[in-house]
Amino acid sequence: MISKLEQLKKMTTVVADTGDINSIKKYEPTDATTNPSLIYAASQDPQYQYLIDDAMRWGSSKTSDPRKMMQHIISKLFVNFGIEILKIVPGRVSTEVDARLSFDVEGSIQRATTLIDLYEAAGVDRSRILIKLASTWEGVEAARHLEKEGIHCNMTLMFSLPQAIAAADAGATLISPFVGRILDWYRTHENVEGYAPEKDPGVLSVTKIFHYYKKYGYHTQIMGASFRNVDEILELAGCDLLTIAPKFLEILQTTVGSVPRKLDPMTAKKIVVEKLEVNQKNFRFLVNDDAMAIEKLSDGIRRFSADLIKLEHHIFERLSAKT
Fold first, then answer.
1. 296 near 185, Cβ under 8 Å?
2. Is 270 assigned a catalytic role?
3. What is the rounded distance in angstroms from the CA atom of residue 26 to the CA atom of residue 242?
4. Which member of 122, 166, 195, 322 has the greatest number of CB atoms within 10 A?
5. Of the ranges 75-84, 121-130, 186-195, 314-323, which one carries the lowest mean pLDDT score?
6. Which homologous superfamily does the CATH classification assign to the domain defined by 4-317?
7. In a 3-state reduction of DSSP, which class is residue 187?
8. Based on C-alpha coordinates, what's the Rg of the chain?
9. Helix (H), strand (E) at residue 176
10. Is pLDDT at 306 greater than 70 in this prediction?
11. In terms of Cα–Cα distance, which of 242, 102, 231, 113 is closest to 178?
């Protein structure tokens, strides 16, 4: 019998959730995603120091202003990792905009455009890039503008149906609901060790979004993300995409057994789901009215920002050592 990973690939596009290029080579995913936390972790590995050195040389040549120089270096570093990943995967790579711009529409648009310009200067077509934006209202508005420019967006830090609807209404190419972080919140607040796979709150959230999108014919793709266990992944078999960390890819690749489809677009079309209109005012109310969604959104922005600051400090130390 073929592995669970190979069976999953027959109904869902498998995406590697890592900045480790060797892991991507091993599991042969279609796409790959990165974020500041993953890039920071990869930057500590000596085998990737050449990517940092190249970004530092490029950024230092652009300006003598320390703040602007660091922005140039970080953008180039993220693109350098993306370029290396695209040498391996046949599909797309997701590259994240600075989380500190999560409430800045113009800043997000400018940073996204910079990333795309760097990719295109390296000969990479923009169709192979997904720009990751936080699923704030400002992130949604940035995506609306970018998609009109042919820059495809992946809405990250997503924890609720209103966020998903707003992203789809804006024409975002992809959304990344965070399954595991939703589970984390409910385990803490309900004081339980866990849930049966089919009752996992993160699984239920993605299932609800999937049914809504397919019911109303949205073209935005759904990519479940941030898993805490393999059961969560298998409960979402049939989702458009799933981005999976190497440790879970390893388990799926080395185990056998039946992997039934759990999410089916045809089934979703038959489900009764109320249509919800989402504008700026009710987006803000509905997201803030959901304690889990607003807490995890804020926490995610803080965490990505903190890891980006760690990365900047790491680069600053390397720059200082060269002077």
1. yes
2. no
3. 17
4. 166
5. 314-323
6. Aldolase class I (3.20.20.70)
7. helix
8. 19
9. strand 174-177
10. yes
11. 242
